[in-house]
Amino acid sequence: xxxxxxxxxxxxxxxxxxxxxxxxxxxxxxxxxxxxxxxxxxxxxxxxxxxxxxxxxxxxxxxxxxxx
Length: 68
Prior knowledge:
Elements: H1 4-10, H2 14-25, H3 29-36, H4 49-67
Helix pairs in contact: 2-4
């Protein structure tokens, strides 16, 4: 997970894929936060990896609600 932000350069849907995995595993928010602390961040990005993952988790949740 440390290279998630870097992996997203080559695989733009990396955050969504990880979000789907997290929702499939039914991880608690504390567990998600602990994993996000492990993502390497270089410099001070305007949009942090945590923000990107929170957005992806929201998209996954919306898609799940729409298909239910």
